[in-house]
Queue: 2 jobs
Job 1
Amino acid sequence: MTKLPELFGSEVFNDAVMRRRLPKETYEALKKTVEDGKPLDISLANVVANSMKDWAVERGATHYTHWFQPMTGVTAEKHDSFISPRPDGSVIMEFSGKALVQGEPDASSFPSGGLRATFEARGYTAWDPTSYAFIKEGILFIPTAFCSYSGHALDNKTPLLRSMKAIEVQALRVLKLFGSNAKRVYTTTGIEQEYFLVDRETYNKRKDLIYTGRTLFGAPPPKGQDMDIHYFGSIKMRISAYMRELNEELWKVGVLAKTEHNENAPAQHELAPIFMTTNVACDHNQIIMERMRRVAKKHGLTCLLHEKPFADVSGSGKHNNWSMATDEGVNLLDPGKTPEENAQFLLFFCAVIKAVDEDQELLRISVATAGNDHRLGGFEAPPAIVSVYVGEELEAILDAIDTGIHYDKKAVGNLEVGVDILPAFPRDATDRNRTSPFAFTGSRFEFRMPGSSMSVAAPNTVLNCIVAESLCQFADELEGAENFNSALNDLIRRTIREHRRVIFNGNGYDAAWVEEAERRGLVNLPSTADAVPHLMDEKNVAVFKKHGVYSEDELRSRRDIRLDAYCRTIRTEANTMLEMVNVDYIPAVIAYETVLAEAINAKRSAGSAIPYRTESMLLADIAAQNDTLHDSAAALKRLMDGAKGFGPEQNVELARYYRTKVLPEMNEVRKLVDSLELMVGKKFWPFPSTGSLLYRV
Ligand code: ADP
Ligand code: MG
């Protein structure tokens, strides 16, 4: 391996490369356009494109692609080569400014949720110069946004960029009141990614994993994860070779892969990069997922990014660490040392608390997928109820501000925000409350509900937008205030009081919390079918519209696409189940029954003294269970036929039908198969066991 500092970013057209290779005026003009968020002038784009192409070709690239993020949650690319024909029959390598700035993939098959009809299929991609271009496997990747010609966002990146602008505008208004000279505010995100690695050959024998990404069947192995030896345990050689190559691949394209460790479950691992501005972090997370899968293949492994690949084992999520920072390098969620810094921190902190409380549904909706439904509330992942963990000390400080009574029960008089020094904040709070969906961890919030396979663009878009709304209301109130300090005090005190209910430091896995949350009036939307329809609630449409993040049409398209994806996922799972039961499991059970029956007959004819009690008891048991399985599969089939009766406008109803009718029957089918798995002879069983997937990597 080359030295890491040389390897890092070696395949990225980053700032250092641009500075080195672009004419000085071009470099400065480009920087300025990016900083001002203005469109790129075409003559400027021509110079940049040419330099980018020369750099890429030197590195062996032959093609470029406008890399974009359609609403499928993964990324899309279409490769074009740089070659351009010459009259003499030869070719030259060419790349124009126009081709850099704008592309027109004929991407009409991506879901648009009605935002464009295929007859006007033209969508275009536009370069996002805030995210660097990079080379992967001979292709120059240009991060782009994807829109329709009528200006509708057809992707996940465009709304995210809009939300970053929205929060910046409002945060700057607030900062100005504190006398800050900041010119820019960015949101920052660091995404911890959980994943499973299983042996590829074993994986290839599992139809359910191949078709659906999760095991639909499988009796729990004799040894469960309760042994707790895997978490942070020493990493097996094969896995460590995988991690080494993965890191190198990521470093090359500028991803700051930093920590890696074994997770809770056997065969489960985690990778966390160092945080970046949010849109780059989201791009990088897409690269991470893609590389994880690709590198796994080279090591004879398969990477499972599904939220719940195994029923009785911890699922996988993404922890979305989030904060706001200024161009002066100030982390706005970092408590300061002076009264002024404390006050500013508290206001931004309160903006987040208020946003999370007022828009719980939106956060919940932003992480709702069929896969994540198996995880949220699954007693090893945060519940589907949104609450905020702030830690005991910080909670006591908030209480002291609210009531004037300090947590050591001494009255402190009125704790004046912005005047008094607040008691020391819990720095880097030893937050090991893994049960909280939204935790303050000393200088950032950690949103733990996102699922492992999803794009985190949408959750961050929501977070940015709802915090922008809080900050907007704060700025409206404070800008008009006669006495800033007392207005600030009132505002912070009132915000704490009004949104106190969303703060919960207790055990989120506790069943009592569900009742307690209900008493507090917090929203509990247990499934995607319950959650996603609320996207179009008046209040939700309004907040996105106000900040220019999603139009009503764009929002409706997202609701439809998400419900559709939910239904499609369950349909595929149910169909896979039916196939496995009918053509694999039931025939396998019958084969074993036949052997048992033959054994009974053989023993009988061999002589009346020979016992065959075991065979006949087993046979009776198995035959009865196989009948029940057959009935249950038939019932599932009828329900699936019933799903065909819903019209295209009935996606909300169809999603509910899958949730309330189909899923419970799928669970029944599964239970019966899993029970049979522990009764039928091993050599008859058609699929490798869960144990062999989890423990034989
Ligand atoms: P833990 O497992 O204790 O939560 P990790 O180190 O695994 O911690 O992950 C923490 C993540 O939070 C990293 O990606 C880190 O870069 C990120 N992070 C730290 N500070 C910030 C911040 N100010 N804004 C966004 N993310 C941050
Ligand atoms: Mg974390």
Job 2
Amino acid sequence: MRKAGVVLAMVLLVAGCGAGCRESSDVHRRTQYLMGTVVTITVAGVGGDDADRAMNAAFEEIRRLEGILTFFSESSDLGRINAAAGERPVGVSAETIEVLTEARRISDASGGAFDATIGPLVSLWGFEVKERFVPPKEEIERARMLVDWRKMAVDPERRTVRLDRKGMKVDLGGIAKGYAADRAAEVLRQHGVSRALVAVAGDIRAIGEKSPGVPWHVGIQHPRDPGTVLGSLRIADRSVSTSGDYERYFIEDDVRYHHILDPATGRSAAASRSATVLAPTTILSDALSTAAFVLGPEKGIALVRSVPGAEAVIVDREGRVHVTPGLAGKVEGLAS
Ligand code: ADP
Ligand code: MG
């Protein structure tokens, strides 16, 4: 519930339309619960019927991708890859090859801070279940030894994926929502839409501008003040993703345990409160925001600067805000 509230607050901010503001009648917005989260699509510049058709098809595409990429099904591509770990290569869809290839690229670039083979640690910590506790050290160590993107073989020709060791598990929680936002945006375009915003929770893709000369306005959630924004960005034909420690977490002995894990320690990454990344695609902004979050302000900003077209806003563990030079002065409302 809490997460949905936060996300809805964000979506309202995304609309750039506060109290007293009335949106023009050619802006259409719909929300569905998909991929375990709130997906909101906003379409502008087309009539209601066309907008409906386009949005239906886009939601359908996200539902289809969820079926392929979910961690929580034995018959999904991911379920089959994980079940065959240490045994054999598994034939998968082109979509899975595409996501895993991008995941490997970001793993390489981030020195493993982003690692799609994080599954054993995600399962151990169990941020999806209600009963939360810090697992014993030995179990964290055992799971950590199974996390290594270099032991995941992705073969685009044969369209197969193989995990080297039994017990390894791929989890795409840090990249699949971004990919889905890109694909949904593509579907909207195929339906003749040239102005839209697709928000899969905090992974957002903008198509065109909201109206001629008016970019989309996206708020960055304040990591410690639910429902308020840290600052906001204007985007057109671009993507933005935020990874934060404030959505799925518990606190024990004054330590905040949350769902973004540092593969180097097997524990929740502690260098940042949130990382927001702008990039040409959402698959990239999503994976980079997770990587930048884990790396923290110095290395995270350096990573994002090394990627063409990418920019970042990182809130460090003390609440200090770091931005890439390309964004200096461009985050609106940011207290300096
Ligand atoms: P959110 O899911 O809240 O949008 P992220 O995009 O940062 O946030 O993804 C976090 C999810 O990614 C976790 O729930 C988990 O499934 C997975 N994950 C956690 N740590 C890592 C990591 N170091 N590298 C790749 N994926 C991760
Ligand atoms: Mg991410």
